[in-house]
Write a structure and sequence with these properties.
The complex is a heterodimer of chains A (825) and B (662). Chain A has 825 residues and is of the alpha/beta class. Among the domains of chain A are: 7-99 and 144-283 and 755-822, Alkaline Phosphatase, subunit A; 565-730, no CATH class. Chain A contains 29 helices and 27 strands. In chain A, the strands form 6 sheets. In chain A, strands 10, 11, 12, 13, 16, 17, 18, 19, 20, 21 and 22 form an 11-stranded mixed beta sheet that branches. In chain A, α3 (62-70) packs across α11 (241-263) and α13 crosses α14. The radius of gyration of chain A is 27 Å and the shape is globular. The two termini of chain A are 31 Å apart. Chain B is α+β, with helices and mostly antiparallel strands and 662 residues long. Chain B has a 7-stranded mixed beta sheet, sandwiched between helices. The radius of gyration of chain B is 29 Å and the shape is globular. Classes of the chains: A alpha/beta (825), B alpha+beta (662). At the A-B interface, α3, α8, α11 and β9 of A face α6, β8, α10 and α20 of B.
């Protein structure tokens, strides 16, 4: 990522330079080795560290014990914030900023563009053909000017392994990994062949060798990281202790080898080794995690007969077509669609992000677009009575008029943004044209070649965005420009006015409770006043109710509920609630509504405190409805068992008077301390992190030109357009995967088992990292990056970056510093 | 059957020398494992695992209370020293030599059915299913078979060739089913807690060796890799099982059927049944049925089910559709008709083992690939490697069926059948009528004329166990075989690799008539003792070298030191791999004793690779001068003593000048 011009940061930089000069940043960790482990729960590691191996008489995980329990510090109550899912969670760990990436895959509601953050094969192929520099998630962050932790270090001072947030690629890793599959002796190779060559861990094993080698032979490196997803992989497939422990032991040996290498290096004293994980894991021996197919539910008549877009083919492991790696977005046709039969290519109406194990984000097409399309279809039918034609046309234009201003604004703003985007593409193309055909060894050593690719890749993405959005704007303008006087439905092509593949804007609660999925079996109906009877004319589905009522036929596991959906969450704009909430409950942010059944619902209210922090209030309610005018009504309930998140009945809620405590506002830290050991742990914070729209990080040095502002608005809009209508949370030991099966276990929910992850520090004598320290204060993954950078003296105690980091595009970090470690220095 | 109830298994260890060790069972329905150890003259013992259950009498129809499952021979050299023990043969008592008529049927090409049971059990002990001794004979056997098939069999015409290939396939499959049974027994036995006569480590080694029987070079796998083999296979197996469990559950659910896992005594489900509720048949009449993965015919439009006269079960369901006791509140009964029974240990998808409406369904699938293979091998006589179109066709076919998970994997089906038979024998919780129904259908599916039915297998197991014990007691029986085996093992102690290769070749070329053996003198026995101990200690060293980052932190240092000391003292014949391991351990250990013993071991190993490692360490300037001096001294001494050293290394060593004071 390119450093930004210093000119706009002058004041801040001078201030920080003054602090720096006063020793505010001084710390003693000069080199850091970060071991990134996907899906490693802290409680699981702890369980085995404390278990004795009868053969050796030592801990079952001797290196965790030796490095972090005896000679380091560990944060036993470290949690993911947001959902316990890899792409979102690593984004916070790797950037230290609030959640912008909220799923392993995201969709743009306007263009159906799929952001696929996990699919690594297309990246490698495109990298091979010099079409890509970074993994997709990194590109998204780059577009928002949010740097990664590795960006804090010059290219030639860092080593990064293959990972989800991978900046650049090194073929050396892959090539060496292949070479090292051959153990050197033919007989050994025959044995390895018989055991089974370890292709799955080829790059992971090589990354370990690289780190072990480079900490000794390349003392100039200040940042090395290593990523492994092996334990996560094993835990998804297997719930038995033997299999999972084998994976954990392999990891233990890896950190042992790295530690030994660090200790033998010339910089052992000033090197810190950190193990961090993105989330926990809900896996229990003897209980298989059961999958529930939401895609089939939405495709069914009961679910609305939608054509459903998914990341991968359902049962892709069993599909020949799925071998082709460049088709991540698939539309699953519904044979039971009520009004879009055979139009699955043009009009999918549900986008589902299922690659999230214990949760799914659901986008439904904007409800009124459905009505518009059905009305157009009806108006094209011959023989529709004149009164019916008139009523249908009236309604059609009433809907357009309702949205006209908003759509016009959107179209106009998007148009401005596309113009700015186009100008930025032109600039990028000039940069690309000026790039050399060949790079010198010096360029390669400094990553200049990758920088060139990066510009190209981002320009290509921008071009695609421009094409897609301009297409959407054109169709939206066609719709806006329809006039009652000249309207002729019969000669109108629907795809000219209803954008194919677009979901439109988010639905309101009313929409989701009264979602139109087709024409009523009796067709359009008229009221006495000859207007269209909205109740009788359309089939409707209440999706909150539908999801809640799902039940399986044969449930063979006593520990698993017959109902796969735990609760559904959605955002309610603060304005919609303003009238129904007393003043002391008024939020300054949008509220979150949790639906666990008609009589078990809750509102999570949020307000910004005087100190800039957030406070939350949980309110048990029932029967929330929104009417067509947007008015919300609900019944407040007294605390009882069974409300979503189940804090009230949870014995681990760490407060003295639970009813009084829960019936009050509390700051984020207070909520975290009180709830983190409950079954749903930090869900209050996590739901807000996930469902809130986070502004792009404040950037004193942001490009303040007109185009810069427009681009910033556009990037914010793109993120907003990935916001789903509903977040569906699976019940315990349920999952929503459809590409394949994860019977061993899953994550993605707010259950503590899934959010509690690993964070451990250890270092040489000069690092000042405490030895044998158990930190029980709860922290979440926003704390990780500022703490590491603080240890290295790259931010101050308030998380403000050094001038050097400001130069590199870093922003102030919002997370709490883990002072038990940083203050020990 | 209670679902996912944790079933306890008890062990009754009964030995001649030791009092019985007992762990009390927690449930009457839980089968007990009794483990028995019987000494064999000459210094060995037979360990036998029996399954016991009060309900077996009814299930096995012969009133017996226990059944011998498998035996293992441990050659102890007649002492208490664990280091020189060696596991040798594994017998599965239901595995037997076929009768004449069974063999004759097994030769008939394209005869895919079980013709008769073995009637005369005879007095011979069972053939072993695996010899734990890691050796190259398995590979040799395969090489010779390929040569025989190409040169001799190829000239014999389609008929004889098809017969021989048919027989070989049948006998291989028969052995494979016994291997699967042995694996299942051992995995069940592993779940038993407490002290065991057959240790978990030994059990894991046996399982690893059994798994390796399917691999071309599996027999050559050194013992120190067995833990890795075990770990990898275990993960793979459980991975498949969970996936199939969930696949079958989801697809049954989606089609409106009922899924029920069938648990083994250790609580794991390796099989599952899919049922349809009789009450649903009318409601779902005309409903579209998606048969993919279930591989059964549409139940909703099947008149046979409407008028079903076969086995049914009434189960009670609560409001949440859970199976409950009949007298539970709000419980509603449903009459369930079994549709199919599946094996869950299959790669990719569950294997249908029993189709309760169509016995031939499972059999057709069982036969499909077998027929295809037999046709191409025996009749068309074309190898995929000799014909590009065939190669491409086979590749496409395998890709298609493999990727889509078509249920035609006969090898894994064999394993599933073997497990199912064991389940039927061990699980007393299965309704007797249902068990009989399944057993009868399983017998009809069998393709292999060498197989015996369930009842005969039980009787056979008892008889063969008795035969084995008798054989162990006879001086010309197992003791004599033990002696022969040891004398064969001694060949390695006295002859070079080249000569041993000649002996092996002679053995195979004479069709086993000639086997070279040494004379068992006390000196040779002492050497054998040392050699076995050395193997044991090499394994310890190699395993630690593979998995340890620093033995002081992550390994049993006292065990390591014991092994290092042994190699330093008696390790002249240790392997090149051990030499590399010593060098590696020296590099990552900081313990003075360990490092000293590593160097002493490298000196003791009379192998050029060991000296090459020492020389490399001597040349490594990053190693402390003191250690390098020790290396130099050892190298000098080795040169003086005329140890094996490469010419180039010898020249280099000759040029080293050191203070001999070290």
């Amino acid at each position: 990522m390119s450093p930004k011009p210093l000119s706009n940061k002058l004041f801040g930089a001078m201030m920080l330079a003054a602090i720096f000069a006063a020793g505010g940043f001084a710390q003693s960790v000069k080199r850091v080795v970060v071991v990134k482990v996907d899906g490693l729960p802290a409680y699981y590691v702890d369980q085995f560290v404390k278990q004795r191996d009868p053969v050796t008489g030592r801990s079952v995980l001797p290196w965790f014990n030796e490095i972090f329990y005896k000679n380091g510090s560990r944060v036993s109550n470290f949690y993911t914030r947001g959902i316990s899912l890899s792409a979102p969670s690593w984004s916070m760990l790797d950037t230290g900023q609030h959640l912008q990436i909220k799923g392993n895959i995201e969709y743009d509601r306007l263009t159906k563009h799929g952001y696929d953050y996990l699919y690594i094969v297309p990246y490698y192929v495109r990298y091979l053909f010099k079409k890509k520099a970074d993994m997709p998630a990194v590109e998204v962050l780059d577009q928002m000017s949010i740097p990664l932790m590795c960006d804090a270090f010059p290219y030639n001072k860092r080593y990064t392994a293959q990972q989800l947030y991978q900046r650049g690629n090194s073929w050396e890793n892959l090539a060496s990994g292949f070479v090292n599959l051959y153990p050197g002796k033919p007989k050994d190779f025959v044995d390895e062949w018989s055991i089974g060559l370890d292709f799955l861990n080829l790059t992971i094993n090589q990354a370990e060798r690289d780190v072990v080698d480079k900490v000794v032979t390349m003392p100039e490196l200040n940042y090395l990281d290593y990523f492994t997803g092996y334990f996560d992989h094993v835990s998804h497939a297997n719930n038995d202790t033997a299999s999972r422990l084998a994976g954990l032991k392999a990891l233990d040996r890896t950190i042992g080898r790295m530690w030994v290498a660090i200790q033998s290096s010339s910089r052992a004293d000033e090197t810190a080794m950190i193990v961090v994980s993105d989330h926990g894991f809900n896996s229990e021996e003897k209980i298989y995690s059961q999958g529930f197919n939401l895609v089939n539910l939405f495709r069914s008549a009961a679910g609305g007969g939608h054509h459903v877009v998914t990341k991968q083919r359902m049962m892709s492991d069993y599909s020949i077509k799925a071998i082709y790696p460049f088709l991540p977005i698939v539309t699953n046709e519904s044979k039971e669609s009520f009004y879009l039969k055979g139009q699955n290519d043009r009009y999918p109406t549900v986008l589902v992000d299922l690659d999230g194990n214990e949760r799914a984000s659901i986008h439904l097409r904007q409800n009124d677009l459905n009505i518009l399309q059905i009305l157009l279809q009806q108006l094209k039918v011959k023989g529709l009575s004149r009164p019916m034609q008139k009523a249908a046309t009236d309604l059609f234009f009433q809907i357009i008029d309702k949205y006209r201003n908003g759509w016009q604004t959107t179209a106009a703003q998007l148009g401005e943004e596309m113009d700015a985007l186009h100008r930025s593409i032109e600039k990028q193309e000039k940069v690309i044209a000026a790039q050399p055909d060949k790079f010198t060894p010096e360029d390669y050593a400094h990553g200049i070649d990758k920088e060139a690719r990066r510009v190209y890749a981002l320009a290509e993405l921008a071009k695609r965005s421009e094409t897609d959005y301009r297409k959407y704007i054109a169709i939206l303008n066609n719709l806006i420009n329809l006039k009652r006087e000249t309207f002729d439905a019969k000669n109108l092509k629907i795809e000219d006015v209803i954008a194919p593949e677009a979901m439109g804007e988010r639905n309101s609660v009313f929409d989701l409770q009264n979602y139109v999925v087709g024409l009523s079996p009796n067709g359009l109906a008229l009221n006495a006043d000859q207007s269209l009877d909205l109740e009788k004319s359309f089939r409707r589905v209440d999706y909150f109710d539908l999801l809640h009522k799902q039940k399986v036929r044969s449930n063979v596991q006593a520990e698993v509920s017959s109902r796969p959906v735990d609760f559904t969450a959605t955002r309610i704009p603060q304005d919609a609630l303003a009238e129904v909430l007393p003043s002391e409950l008024r939020s300054s942010e949008d509220a979150i509504w949790l639906y666990g059944g008609f009589d078990k619902q809750a509102l999570i209210l949020t307000r910004i405190d005087a100190d800039g922090g957030q406070s939350y209030r949980y309110m048990p309610i029932s029967a929330l409805r929104q009417d067509v005018r947007g008015k919300i009504a609900f019944t407040r309930q007294k605390w009882a068992d069974g409300f979503p998140l189940k804090y009230f009945e949870d014995m681990n809620l760490a407060v003295s008077d639970r009813e009084a405590w829960i019936n009050d506002w509390h700051s984020e830290v207070e909520w975290l301390r009180a709830t983190h050991k409950t079954i749903y742990s930090n869900a209050i914070i996590g739901l807000n992190e996930q469902i809130d729209r986070h502004k792009l990080p404040a950037d004193d040095g942001a490009d303040v030109s007109v185009d810069g502002s427009l681009m910033r608005r556009f990037r914010q809009r793109q993120r907003d357009m990935t916001q789903a209508d509903m977040l569906v949370l699976a019940a315990n030991h349920w999952n929503f995967n459809v590409a394949s099966f994860n019977p061993g276990g899953n994550h993605g929910s707010y259950f503590r088992v899934s959010t509690n992850s690993t964070l451990m520090f250890a270092g040489g004598a000069k690092t000042g990292i405490p030895r044998g320290l158990l930190i029980e204060e709860p922290y979440d993954n926003l704390s990780f990056m500022p703490t590491v950078l603080r240890l290295m003296g790259k931010v101050d105690d308030q998380g403000r970056p050094t001038p050097e980091l400001l130069e590199r595009g870093f922003h102030t970090f919002p997370g709490r510093m883990i002072t038990e470690i940083t203050k020990a220095n | 059957m209670a679902v996912f109830a944790v079933l306890a298994i008890s062990v009754r260890a009964q030995t001649i020398e030791e009092p019985a060790k007992q762990v009390k069972a927690e449930s009457n329905d839980t089968p007990d494992f009794r483990v028995e150890k019987i000494p064999v003259a000459g210094g060995a013992e037979i360990i036998t695992i029996f399954a016991r259950n009060e309900n077996f009498g009814e299930g096995l129809r012969d009133g017996a209370m226990e059944i011998p499952l498998l035996s293992v021979m441990r050659d102890t050299l007649g002492d208490d020293r664990l280091e020189n023990d060696r596991l040798r043969y594994v017998w599965v008592h239901s595995y037997t030599k076929a009768s004449f008529w069974q063999k004759a049927a097994a030769f008939v090409p394209f005869l895919y059915l079980r013709t008769t049971n073995k009637k005369d059990f005879g007095s011979a002990p069972p053939p072993h299913v695996v010899d734990m001794n890691s050796n190259h004979s398995g590979v040799w056997g395969q090489v010779l078979w390929v040569v025989f098939k190409r040169i001799i069999l190829g000239e014999m015409g389609v008929g004889p060739k098809a017969s021989v290939l048919q027989y070989r396939q049948n006998s291989q499959d028969y052995r494979r089913t016994s291997v699967a049974k042995a694996l299942t027994v051992l995995s069940l036995f592993e779940s038993v807690g407490g002290e065991k006569i057959l240790s978990d480590a030994e059990s894991k080694d046996i399982q690893a060796r059994l798994w390796l029987t399917d691999k071309t070079f599996g027999a050559m796998m050194p013992d120190e890799e067995l833990n890795r083999v075990y770990d990898k296979e275990l993960v793979k197996k459980r991975d498949r099982r969970g996936l199939n469990w969930e696949l079958l559950r989801q697809y049954s659910e989606a089609q409106g059927l009922y899924f029920e896992p069938m648990e083994m005594p250790d609580g794991t489900a390796r099989h599952a049944t899919v049922w349809v509720a009789a009450e649903d048949l009318a409601v779902n009449k005309g409903r579209k049925f998606e048969s993919r993965f279930l591989n059964i015919k549409d139940p909703w439009n099947d008149e046979r089910l409407t008028n079903w006269k076969g086995y049914t079960q009434v189960k009670w369901f609560d409001d949440e559709d859970r199976i409950v006791e009949p007298n539970s509140a709000n419980a509603k009964p449903k009459t369930l008709i079994p549709l199919a029974l599946y094996g869950l240990d299959n790669p990719k998808i569950p294997t249908i083992l029993v189709d309760f409406r169509d016995t031939r369904n499972a059999k057709r699938r069982e036969m499909s690939r077998r027929v295809l293979n037999d046709l191409t091998n025996s009749v068309i006589s074309v190898s995929p490697f000799g014909s590009l179109p065939l190669f491409l066709g086979k590749f496409a076919y395998d890709l298609l069926t493999g990727r889509r998970g078509t249920d035609i994997n006969q090898a894994s089906r064999l394993r599933s059948y073997a497990q199912l038979k064991l389940l039927l024998a061990l699980d007393a919780t299965i309704d007797v009528n249902f068990r009989d129904e399944i057993a009868a259908r399983v017998e009809k599916v069998s393709l292999n004329p060498l197989e015996n039915d369930l009842a005969v297998e039980a009787a056979l197991a008892r008889r063969q166990y008795s035969n084995l014990i008798e054989y162990a007691k006879r001086n010309d029986g197992l003791p004599a075989r033990l002696d022969r085996d040891r004398r064969e093992e001694m060949v390695k102690l006295t002859h070079s690799r080249k000569r041993r290769t000649l002996y092996t070749a002679a053995h195979f070329l004479t069709l086993g008539l000639y086997t070279h053996r040494e004379t068992a003198t006390p000196e040779m026995l002492a050497k054998l003792d040392i050699r076995r101990q050395l193997n044991y200690h090499e394994r310890v060293i190699n395993e630690i070298a593979y998995r340890s980052a620093k033995p002081e932190v992550d390994s049993d240092v006292s065990a390591l030191k014991r092994s290092l000391r042994f190699v330093a003292e008696y390790g002249s014949d240790a392997s090149e791999k051990t030499a590399r391991s010593l060098s590696k351990i020296f590099a990552f250990s900081e313990d003075e004793d360990i490092r000293s013993m590593c160097l002493a071991g490298l000196f003791e190993i009379d192998d050029s690779a060991a000296k090459n490692q020492l020389l490399a360490m001597y040349r490594n300037v990053n190693i402390n001068e003191r250690w390098r001096t020790i290396c130099a001294n050892y190298l000098k001494r080795a040169l003086e003593e005329g140890q094996r050293i490469s010419t180039r290394d010898a020249t280099a060593i000759a040029e080293i000048t050191v203070d001999s004071g070290n």
